[in-house]
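This part of the workshop introduces the protein records we will be handling. A learned vocabulary of local backbone shapes supplies the integers on the structure line. Getting from the letters to the tokens is the skill we practise here. As an example, a complete record with its sequence and its structure tokens follows.
=====
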Amino acid sequence: MNVTADWNIDRSMLINECLEALALVLEYDMNDNTTHQHAIRVGEGCVLIGHKLGLPPATLQKMYYAGLLHDVGKISVDPRLLGRKGRLSEEEFNLVKSHTIFGSRILAALPGLSEMSLWVRWHHEWWAGTGYPDGLIKSEIPLEVQILSVVDCFDSLQSPRLDRDRRSQAEAFRIMEDERGTHFNPDMLDSVLEMVHEKTLLPGESSPKFLELKEEYLTTPLSKYSSEYWQGSGMAALHPILRLFARVIDAKHKYTRGHSTRVAYLSKFIAEKMGLPVDHILQIEVAGLLHDAGKVSVSLEILDKPAPPDSNQWEVIRMHPQKSLDILLHISSLQDIAAIAASHHERYDGKGYPKGLKGDEIPILSRVIAVADSYDAMTSNRAYRKGMPAEIAYNKIKDGISTQFDPKITKAFLDISPKYIQALFSMYEVEDV
């Protein structure tokens, strides 16, 4: 496969596309795979209420993406905790509450989204001042957050959840009325109820009114940065966004934390040792950072299993390259990167997955990532085993020459001292978002 970077395409929608892709990461992590997801419903509801209240187009657009990503911080919270029925301990509830802070940090790292990151931080602040994390009260809570909070609660009550039963619309109305003036600004609550009764806000589907507003307001660039800015700074401009993606992906589990970053920089090091072209070296770093995007769909029951996965669990794991492809195809700038990431579990002898590609049918950068990924996986701790010593991992990779791994790439890797790799990894140690 020819791997080239086309920098002549329009990049004005880059931030929009990245946020859509982040939302898909969250959907896979939460297994919210119904036809119309909670995050989408919240985003649409925020736009509808905001328009009803006369907010400007730029604000409506930000509110849509804030709704789409309001729970992105939950990727850092154990899903078993989120799904537990019954009362949580104070310590457990504090872990759940931390998702607002974690989510705000994710968005704050992207250019031009500081205001939106605050909305995500505060979407559990309550009108009476008893919410979290900052205890804002009444007018201290931005209007956009008041809207986000009430729409989120209204939809959440009617969504199927592991920790409680789904409520009917009538029950949702009653519960929220009980919180009028305590959790919610009464005016915001009235706006939601009015729009539901008018059938402008339709729980579970996109209303014609939203589709009209989407066409008018949401198909323009979210970021003030122009297409020329992204074009002029090339692939380097993407790095803050893509490194952030890797940190979000790896936050799924303590055993995967830092994995994507290590794979990216080891892959880059191998590519440099092989003398690959500069554009390949830039691409392999990006593909390495994002290669496991689809692994957020693998449950912690599998990742935490104190034994190797069984055949059914392996089938779930083997789906993650395709899901990485699905996520990355949302970003027009990363079409080639998506193909590279999706092929990192193909084998040189054709016995890999997901497509059973063989030899040169596999993109060369995917073949490099396969070596780096295997080395880091073998030398890292897993729930069912401790990481192998480097020398054993080296021998296993050597044993895989011409079967699992490309011979030329394997030789380049084996010529690198394990101490060099250890030093490389220490330079890129990952801190929490």
User: Anything to note?
Assistant: The chain is about 55% helix and 0% strand. The longest helix spans residues 14-30.
